[in-house]
Structures are given as C-alpha cells and as structure tokens.
Design a protein that fits this description.
The complex is a heterodimer. Chain A is mainly alpha-helical. In chain A, about 45% of the residues lie in helices and about 5% in strands. Chain A is rod-shaped. Chain B is of the alpha+beta class. Chain B starts with 6 loop residues before the first strand and ends with a strand. The chains are: A mainly alpha, B alpha+beta.
Chain lengths: ~210, ~250
C-alpha cells in the first residue's frame, strides 16, 4: 500500500475538526510538508490521524509509507530539510491543530454506552461534555384545592404616606376587636375597616 | 442521532432540571414557580439531555380566566424547556407529548397547560404547534427589554434588586428615558387542553397558525424567518420549521 486513498476513515472517531483546525492542518502540510505519523490497523482503518489524512488529501499529498510494528518500539519520523523557523512553526501547528479540534459528542456518547471511558475521562469531564447522569424522582404532589381566600397586597408609598397609613391603622384598631372578621391579620383588618369607613360612611363607628 | 422513539421521559428533581436549564436554555434562568420537572433521556442512558418544567403562572389570577370555570389549581404553565442537540430529531414534541400524558394520568385535576414562545429571542413555537397546542395570542414584545446592550426581563427590573424612581418601577423609568427599549419581536401564547371540555370554555379565540407569518412573528432558533431566508436562501419557513423543533423554547 503506497497511497493514502487506500486508507479507511475511523467510523468511531470521537474527535472532529473545526473548519479552523482543518484549514490549519492543510496549511501546515502545504508549508512544512508531512511530518507526523498516523496509526492504522491491519485493515488499513485509521485509528489516529484522521485529520492529518484529510489535510493531506486537501494539500495534494498522496504518497504513503507504512511501517508495521507490534507496539514494542516507538516509530520516530525523522524530518529533514526544515529551517529552524520551520521547526518552530511545525511544532506549534501540530499542537494548535489539536487544540482547535473538538469532541464529537454524539460519537462520544455512543462510545460511552459501549465502553468504559474512565481511563481517559474523569466523570465530571464526561458530565460537562455529555450531561450529568441523574436519578428518577418521585412525582410531587400538586395542590388540587381551591385558592385560599387570602391575598397579600403591596404598594409603594412615600415615607410620609407610610407614617399616615400607620397612624390610620393604629387608630382603626382603637375602635375595637375584629370579632366578625374571617381574617386573623390585625393590620389587614384595620385597613379593611378604614376602607369600609371610607366607602360606607362613619355612622357605625361614630366618626365625624 | 437515532429516533425520537428512543427517548424516555421521567420525573426528576428540581435541582437536576434547574442545572440543565441553566446550562442549555437561552435565558440561562429558571423560574422559582416551577414545581413539576421532567427529564429527557435516551433509552438505557442516565445522562440528562432535556428538561421540561411546569408550575404556576406568574399572573395566576389573570391566566385562570383564559378558560372559564377553571379551578384555582386547574392549570399549569410550561415554564421552561431545554433540550440537548444530542437528542434525536423531533424529540422535543415527543417529550412534550409524553409529559402531557403523564400529567393527565397523574394529575387529573389539571385541565389545561399554557406556555409562551419567545418570538423576540428564540422561536415562534414550532414545537408547541407540533405537539397539539393551540395558538391563542400574538403580542408585540413588551416584556423583554434591551438595556446596556443586554437583554433583561421587565419583571427583573421591577423586582427588589433594582431601585424605584419616585415610587415607579425601574423599567418604566428606563423606557421613558429611552435608556431601555423593548426587544423587537413577538410573544406567542399557546394552550393545550387536557380536559375535553376545556377547549369549549376558552374565553379567547383560537388563532390560525398562518397568523404568525401574517403579522411577521415568524422566528426560528433566534433568527427572524425573513432574516433567515436571506441568510440561508431557504424558500419557505415550513422547510426549516414544520415538526422540526427549535433547540429551546420557553
């Protein structure tokens, strides 16, 4: 096998390139040429380096050299012909393109259902990416009764008005207990008494 | 990813629902009045991917009158819902449908559900229409204001957090002095009837869905349809709307 077109993409790849990442990979390959190796299996399926191969195709790099290994040695790619400036650029591009790619959440969720991802992900990292695992709760009781015949009313008053209202409430209470009221809130009763007096007149309380 | 049939809807705690809504809802805010919380999951997976929160309406007394003879606790508002993009297409309307069935079964005193679509920021209620809700009102937005370059709810400005100006609510002051302006757009009100007689007792007319386009209230995923047509060169709103849900709607 000597051509990248013989390689098969990884159908379980959980990383995806952003447009920026893909562009940067292509530009890096065009500017510095190929450097990083990729990993394939016996069936020529890409296990690592999908982005590199996509970038290589976009950059017009077709040739492929395969080195078989059983994992007991590190394969180093010895790049030659780079200036010092190129070496810095290549190294930065290599790191930056990785930063700019992102997790394919859909694939990661699928992989998390089929595999134990704990060696590579802390639970909170997966929670942040895929949502937290939560337990079912009991259905709450919802009130089905009628509304309580009490309401809280609020108004905005100026300080001077507050003093006036307080004084009126105090005077209202002086007229005696609220024996026939269904309300046990004394201020409410006092205010209602003032309203009654205002509307119905003062005869009942003997106020002129 | 997958089919909407693969979703499961279960009651969850308010804490879990709030966390998801704060993460995924466009407003990033929850409503304190929410009492009933449903979670949306993929079958066989515990990860929470969506939430629907039901509770009292803010103006319960006024809302109660929308359907005559409704008992004080005879209706609920769908306060918030938010869904992760990981859920299959059409999950939203299916999730609502399941939630409504659960409410009908477990809370027989609930006669109808009200909800609002924020056509100023989010969507015109595609999910509600796909879920059997009726459109009952389209109002020019007055509740969401643009202030200091940010969107803020009128009710937030009128809460105790902000000052009163000579006794007036702060929103009134900001609007009058042109420091804040209502966000352009519409608020759409939808109602779903759980009791068969509730629809007959509706005190306002049911509006045809075509009214949304007619008044220019079309909105999908936070983009006015007219604007979106320009951007995407999509020929009709139906092509991008239909039963396909918006990501989040309130």
């Amino acid at each position: 096998m000597t051509s990248i077109k013989d390689l098969k993409g990884d159908h379980k790849n959980a990383r995806k390139r952003t447009d920026r990442s893909a562009t940067l990979i292509k530009e890096s390959l065009e500017k510095f040429g190929a450097a990083r190796s990729i990993v394939i299996d016996e069936d020529n399926r890409i296990l690592a380096g999908n982005g590199t191969i996509e970038g290589a195709k976009a950059a017009g790099i077709k040739n492929l050299r395969v080195i078989e290994t059983d994992g007991k040695e590190i394969i180093a790619v010895k790049r030659i012909g780079l200036t010092e400036e190129d070496k810095v650029g290549l190294a930065l591009a290599d790191n930056r393109t990785s930063d700019l790619s992102e997790w394919d959440r859909e694939m990661l969720l699928k992989l998390s259902e089929e595999n134990d991802l704990s060696p590579w992900f802390e639970e909170e990292d997966l929670d942040a990416l895929l949502g937290e695992g939560v337990e079912e709760a009991d259905l709450p009781d919802l009130d089905d009764g009628e509304k309580e015949p009490f309401q809280q009313m609020s108004f905005v008053l100026h300080d001077e008005q507050v003093a006036l209202v307080n004084e009126a409430i105090a005077k209202s209470k002086d007229f005696g207990e609220f024996t026939n009221s269904l309300n046990q809130n004394s201020n409410g009763n006092a205010l209602a008494r003032i309203a009654e007096l205002f509307i119905n007149g003062s005869e009942k309380y003997g106020v002129s | 990813m997958g089919l909407a049939k693969q979703i499961v809807v279960k009651p969850i705690s308010g804490k879990d629902a709030n966390a998801l809504v704060k993460r995924l809802h466009y407003s990033k805010a929850v409503m304190a009045s929410s009492q009933l919380h449903f979670g949306v999951f993929l079958r066989g997976n515990k990860r929470l991917l969506g939430a629907m929160q039901f509770g009292s309406s803010i103006d319960k007394r006024k809302t109660q009158k929308l359907v005559a003879d409704t008992p004080w606790n005879g209706f609920l508002e769908l306060n918030r819902m938010a869904f992760d993009e990981l859920l299959p297409r059409n999950s939203e309307s299916r999730a609502i449908s399941i939630a409504l069935k659960l409410i009908k079964k477990n809370y027989p005193h609930i006669q109808w559900i009200i909800s609002f679509a924020d056509g100023a920021q989010c969507g015109d209620g595609t999910i509600y229409r796909a879920s059997g809700f009726y459109l009952t009102s389209i109002k020019v937005n007055k509740q969401m204001l643009l202030w200091k370059g940010k969107v803020i709810a009128k009710k937030t400005l009128d809460s105790g957090t902000y000052p009163r100006i000579n006794g007036r609510y702060y929103s009134g002051y900001l609007l009058e002095t042109k420091q804040a302006t209502p966000l352009p757009g519409f608020q759409l009100r939808y109602v779903y009837f759980l009791h068969p007689t509730a629809k007959e007792r509706l005190t306002v007319p049911i509006l045809p869905f075509s009214k949304i386009k007619e008044v220019g209230a079309s909105m999908y995923k936070g983009i006015n349809i007219k604007e979106r047509l320009k951007q995407d060169q999509v020929s009709t709103p139906d092509k991008i709307g239909g039963a396909a849900p918006t990501q989040t709607l309130q």
